[in-house]
Amino acid sequence: MKQIPYQKMAKFLTNRDENYSQWYNDLVIKADLAENSAVRGCMVIKPYGYAIWEKIQAELDRLFKATGHVNAYFPLLIPKSFFSKEAAHVKGFAKECAVVTHYRLKNDENGKGIIVDPTAKLEEELIIRPTSETIIWHSYKNWIHSYRDLPILINQWANVVRWEMRTRLFLRTTEFLWQEGHTAHATREEAEEETEKMINVYASFAENSMALPVIKGYKSENERFAGALDTFAIEALMQDGKALQAGTSHFLGQNFAKAFDVQFTDKTGKLDYVWATSWGVSTRLMGAIIMGHADNHGLVLPPKLAPIQVVIIPIYKNINQIGALSDAAIKIKAGLEALGITVKYDDRDNNKPGWKFADYELKGVPVRLAIGPRDIENSTIEVARRDNLTKETIPIDKVHEYIPKLLDDIQSNMYNKALNFRKENTFYVDNWSEFLKILDNQGGFIMAHWDGTAETEEKIKEETKATIRCIPFDSPEEPGKCIYSGKPSRRRVLFAISY
User: Fold this and answer.
1) Which domain holds residue 349?
2) What is the count of structural domains for the chain?
3) Do 172 and 122 belong together in one domain?
4) Burial bucket for residue 384 (CB in 10 Å: 0-12, 13-18, 19+)
């Protein structure tokens, strides 16, 4: 195999090593994933970006339904009074809520355009959902009466609004797309089992579909979801050494059931409150794919989530050559599609092959096939892979056998590359000076002892911006001393600076 030469298209990207943040922004825009909208903090997800999200959505939806969940939809607008019923929940979201106060516009009598009609003030303000626990549990009160009504296993695909001051495309926007699962159970054990099951679903998806290794664990009390008794999370390491929370699953106990008076009669005839969970991932996963895999040439998409898995590009000098090339390309395309592979044949004559090569490289298409007159003569085809920027020539009659295996190999290689990066950037630290040194140098995941107090956690965050990302499920009992306070500690926790 020989190295594919650097393409001119990449010059439009800021070098990742020089300015990671600008590189990310350039890539999102130049790869046609998204752009900023006219509404501050909100984004327009462009067709290519949305196609990736649709692949994410489709696979997650399949996994949810395979575990017994069904989809429903609840209102975007939530009465303000609903939020006051669960104190911890409202405290957690109060500063991020967008509030609807009026229901009508009118022409300004002074001819200054459209104004809000002051006589059309709502009796009760409505909150644009930052999350849906309150509106959903209001409905569950009407649905649940007996143990026979349980469990309820519902997922919602929706948009939410959280008023963010500092935004970045996909990673943190005022409005974003997500799914939120909301389940109701007869026993604590069932709800806890559901909470764990769903974080495992997320972890499996991240590793098998996104080719991104993650660490599963408990959130500290400071980092828990507002209103939850326990929050589980998956944490991924991005290529700049920062952590990204890629999914959460919350054990809500009976908090929301008590707030909305959702009781049921159990098998013994006793009245009890329902046990609850909620769990979700969002378009932030798009950011995880970009920052977990992309390079200075552009996106590197895992084949399982790539809208176009294979692109075929004809190379010709005159129009008389296109007929034979198209016949061969269309035959290859049909054969690959019959195997379930998504293929694009790009025979546009308004761009040269070199431009197309660079464009599909920028967009992260996993495999590129190039075919020219000489390939027709020799019964060969050129195969280029995006993950390692190598290419080779294979017999054209082997392409339908070769490409499926190649896509599997690319998927595995991307995961292993990300896993090796995480291993190389995970550090076991036993003292404060070493902790600071790693954060100042390269960042990464830091496994260190913590005394278990919120006070120490806050001080570490204030002094370094590093937070406890999670307490890994597989973190063993290991007596030690807290890196900050020196007090006794039973196990190491995962620290990092995060997005």
Assistant:
1) 306-410
2) 3
3) yes
4) buried
